[in-house]
Amino acid sequence: MVFNLDTAAKELDEKATEPFKFKYKRKSWTLQTAMSLDIRVLLDPANDSLTSYEQFRLLLGDEQWESFPSINVSTAELLMKEYEKYVEEREGAGLGESEPPTDS
Question: Considering the entire predicted model, what is its pTM?
Answer without folding.
Answer: 0.66
